[in-house]
Specification:
Elements: E1 11-14, H1 19-45, H2 59-62, E2 75-79, H3 85-92, E3 96-101, H4 104-113, E4 119-121, E5 134-140, H5 150-160, E6 161-172, E7 200-203, E8 209-213, H6 218-227, E9 230-236, H7 253-256, E10 262-269
Helix pairs in contact: 1-4
Length: 270
C-alpha cells in the first residue's frame, strides 16, 4: 500500500545539516517513501539485478566487484541496500551478502521479495560488525549521498573489510549539482555553483529537515576515499545507453547524452 503524503509539501532549500539531523531526516523520509519508491522504480531495478545507477549499467557487464565466478563464497556487505536487489543478485552468484539499510520500511520490501541472506537495519556510520568481517563492500546510490560526513562511513567500511578487500560505490555525478534537477531542456543550463557544498534540504513548516542530500565535488570524493585508507583504482562514469528511454528525476536520455549522471568509485583496502 502506497502511503499518501500528509500535510503541506516540504520546502526545498540549501542550508547546513549535520550528521544527526541528516540521519534522522533520511531515516524518516525513506520509511515514509519506500512503498512509492519501490512501485516507481521496482521494474527498472528488478528483484535480483545489480544496477549501478539510472543509466542501467549492470554488474553482469561491468564486473566492478570482479568476475562473477570469483564472487562465490565471498562475504559481501551492501550499504543502503533498499529492497536488497543487489544483495539478491550476489547471493545468486554464490556470495554471502549482508544487506544493510537505515530504513526499516525498505528492508520490509526486501523481506517481501525474499532471500536467505541477513538484513540489518543500522546506520552506515556505525556498522555493527567486527573488524575484518567482509571481503567486499558495495553501495549503489546508497548511504554515501545522504551522510553529512562520508569519511565516517568510509572508515567504518575500511574497518570491516579484510586486507585486499574492495569497496565499490556509486553516487550522483558531482557535476549534476550545478544543473537544475530536471530531465528536459530546462535542465541543461548551469543554475548554481559546482563548488557550493551547502546541503540540499527539504524541511517542514517548523524548519525540521525531512530529507537531506549532501554534495561533494569529484575532488572531495577522491580525498575522502584516500583519507579513509583506501586506494582508488578506478573511477567509472557510465555513458547513457541507446536502449534506456527511462527518466529518473534529473536523469534522462537527453541529459545523459551530454552530461554524466553517475560516478562509480572502485577502491581497494590495502
Amino acid at each position: 500500500m502506497i502511503q499518501e503524503p500528509e500535510g503541506p509539501e516540504p520546502e526545498a532549500t540549501r542550508r547546513d545539516a549535520g550528521v544527526a539531523e541528516s540521519a534522522r531526516a533520511n531515516r524518516g523520509w525513506w520509511d515514509r517513501n519506500a512503498d512509492e519508491y519501490q512501485v516507481e522504480h521496482g521494474t527498472f531495478l528488478g528483484d535480483d539485478r545489480f544496477v549501478w545507477g539510472p543509466e542501467g549499467l549492470d554488474e553482469v557487464e561491468a564486473e566492478l566487484l570482479g568476475p562473477p565466478e570469483e564472487l562465490k563464497g565471498r562475504d559481501v556487505l551492501e550499504l543502503g541496500a533498499g529492497a536488497a536487489q543487489c544483495a539478491r543478485w550476489l547471493a545468486a552468484q554464490g556470495a554471502r551478502p549482508v544487506a544493510l539499510d537505515l530504513s526499516h520500511r525498505q528492508l520490509q520490501h526486501a523481506l517481501r521479495i525474499g532471500g536467505s541472506f541477513p538484513l540489518v537495519c543500522a546506520d552506515a556510520g556505525a556498522l555493527p560488525f567486527a573488524d575484518g568481517s567482509f571481503d567486499l563492500a558495495c553501495s549503489a546510490y546508497g548511504a554515501l549521498p545522504f551522510v553529512a560526513d562520508p569519511r565516517l562511513v568510509l572508515r567504518e567500511v575500511h574497518r570491516v573489510l579484510r586486507p585486499g578487500g574492495r569497496l565499490v560505490f556509486s553516487v550522483s555525478h558531482p557535476i549534476r549539482w550545478a544543473f537544475p534537477d530536471e530531465p528536459g531542456p530546462e535542465g541543461l543550463s548551469v543554475s548554481g555553483s559546482y563548488f557550493d557544498r551547502t546541503p540540499y534540504v527539504e524541511q517542514d513548516e517548523q524548519g525540521r529537515a525531512v530529507y537531506v542530500e549532501h554534495h561533494r565535488t569529484l575532488g572531495d570524493r577522491v580525498r575522502d576515499v584516500v583519507a579513509s585508507g583506501f586506494r582508488l583504482v578506478d573511477l567509472v562514469e557510465p555513458e547513457w545507453p541507446a536502449w534506456n528511454t527511462s527518466e529518473w528525476g534529473g536523469w534522462s536520455p537527453l541529459r545523459g547524452s551530454l552530461v554524466p549522471g553517475t560516478a562509480i568509485f572502485v577502491c581497494v583496502r590495502d
